[in-house]
Amino acid sequence: MPAMPATVVAIHRYPVKGLSHQPLYRAALKAGEMLPFDRAYALALGSTVFDPNQPEWMPKTNFLMLQRDEKLAALQTDFDPATQTLTVSRGGRPVAKGKLDDPMGKAVIEQFFAAYMGEAARGQPKLVAAPGHNFSDYRMKVVSIINLASVKDLERIVGAPVDPLRFRGNLLVEGLPAWQEFQWIGKEFRIGDVPVRTVKRIQRCAATSVNPETAKRDINVVQSLVRGYGHPDMGIYVEVLADGTIAPGAVLTPPG
User: Fold this and answer.
1) What is the side-by-side strand order in the sheet with 22-24?
2) Claim to verify: residue 151 and residue 108 sit in the same structural domain
3) What distance in Å separates the CA atoms of residue 148 and residue 127, rounded to the nearest whole number?
4) Are residues 122 and 143 both part of a single domain?
5) Same domain as 238, residue 151
6) Contact 129/84 with Cβ under 8 angstroms?
7) Which CATH number do you get for residue 231?
8) In 3-state terms, what secondary structure has residue 138?
9) Which whole-number Å values give the CA distances from 196 to 72, 193, 199, 202, 242, in the listed order?
10) Is 60 in the same domain as 184?
11) pTM of the full predicted structure?
12) By C-alpha distance, which of 242, 249, 163 is closest to 208?
């Protein structure tokens, strides 16, 4: 029997950096861009200065983030791009809702996070955005891919289930042998009809220690990666080379 092709099984974006994922049932990719509305917003610390008129890439330490603020994982969020409305829930119950392009709506969200995070916010957190800007951990505009077989292989080292959501990837892929994606660095391949180029492996941080279900730090993922494989990497970043639309079920055509 021929091997099943590698396919995209889920597409996730993270409209607000550090907050929960949003599943997509199709995504219109544009050359040189991230997924639409992926990391389009961030909650800057009260001590952070961000100029929306001259946006520049900033390290994630300037924002609320899971690496430091694991209690963010206890929140569920939903973002409606048509109305720019963010709804924040906890335990399935809405706790804050606001239009992010409206000063009053932004204030509602900022005040909620000020109360929720307390001193960790270093003052009043600020919801920040700028046209065409993304708050990625990487300077280049990229799409991240997580090979579910690699995550499964990591479970062998950890000795426990590892939720792929710990890695906050855009595309979850099955049907590839574990770690084969690392052989694609610098090479071009296709996701459905969309050509992409692999930019680099993704070095993981302590954010992966946070269980996305319980918001507790329960597995030292970075330590397990280094112990098992001699590196702290999981997943790859790719650059989109041409416009196109993808959906779950899209086949990955490996580099020739």
Assistant:
1) 22-24, 7-13, 171-174, 143-147, 233-240, 194-203, 188-191, 252-253
2) no
3) 33
4) no
5) yes
6) no
7) 2.40.33.20
8) coil
9) 32, 10, 9, 16, 8
10) no
11) 0.95
12) 163
pLDDT single digits (tens) 46-62: 889 999 999 999 999 89
Instruction: Report, in angstroms and rounded to the nearest whole number, the Rg of the chain calculated over CA atoms.
Output: 18
Residue 181 domain-assigned (yes or no): yes
Alpha helices in 118-220 (DSSP H): 148-158
Residues 208, 150 share a domain: yes
- Examine the domain organization and report whether 102 and 69 are in the same domain: yes
Q: Mean of the pLDDT values across residues 129-158?
A: 96
Which residues touch 183 (CB under 8 Å, ≥6 apart)? Answer: none
Q: Are residues 183 and 78 in the same domain?
A: no
Domain count, the chain: 2
Residue 241: per-residue pLDDT: 98
**Which distant-in-sequence residues (6+ apart) come within 8 Å of 107 by Cβ?**
98
Domain extent at residue 154 = 7-18+22-31+138-253
Q: Per residue in 151-175, pLDDT tens?
A: 999 999 999 999 999 999 999 999 9
Are 10 and 255 spatial neighbours (Cβ–Cβ below 8 Å)?
no
Looking at the structure, tell me whether residues 143 and 248 fall in a common domain. Answer: yes
> In the numeric block, which tokens belong to residue 171?
């595309």
Cα-Cα-Cα-Cα dihedral sign, residues 82, 88, 90, 96: negative
